[in-house]
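Regression test case RT-17, inverse folding.

Input:
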């Protein structure tokens, strides 16, 4: 017996909401973790694990919704208009890279995660360039260098979640 479309979409919505809550929680946890180097714009990227999980296991629309709503809610709860702008530019570019790389099917989870982390940094610099001028691009090497270990960490965490969690048969 096939599940009704309403139940199917309700399950997707509920699972997407759960992943959004996880992304919000990871955003908060990330704000509590001090990095050894105080570099502006550099974070662990832990919420991206939930976003990529939503994308790969619930669908593109769910991943986009989790990403967009996380940026909006974190900015409303803990940020400002400027932090929203930086986060939104970074999230949009990172999500575009996620979609494009997943279409090629040539990259593993870690490669996709590193590329998304780099794209997020570039998106932040684009937002900063709008506000402060193109001189901010001198900071690009720092953000790209940080994307390697932090993107790798998120990719490993995503792979671990996919490996350790049972398959999502109810979706």
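Golden output:
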């Amino acid at each position: 017996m096939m599940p009704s479309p309403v139940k199917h979409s309700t399950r997707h919505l509920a699972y997407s909401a759960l992943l959004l809550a996880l992304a919000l929680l990871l955003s908060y946890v990330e704000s509590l973790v001090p990095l050894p180097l105080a570099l502006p714009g550099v974070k662990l990227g832990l919420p991206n694990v939930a976003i990529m999980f939503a994308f790969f296991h619930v669908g593109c629309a769910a991943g986009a919704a989790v990403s967009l709503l996380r940026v909006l809610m974190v900015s409303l709860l803990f940020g400002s208009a400027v932090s929203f702008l930086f986060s939104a530019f970074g999230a949009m570019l990172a999500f575009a890279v996620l979609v494009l790389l997943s279409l090629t099917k040539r990259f593993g989870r870690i490669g996709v995660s590193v590329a998304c982390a780099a794209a997020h940094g570039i998106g932040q610099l684009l937002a900063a360039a709008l506000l402060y001028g193109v001189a901010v691009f001198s900071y690009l090497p720092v953000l790209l260098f940080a994307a390697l270990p932090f993107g790798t960490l998120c990719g490993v965490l995503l792979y671990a979640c996919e490996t350790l969690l049972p398959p999502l048969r109810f979706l």
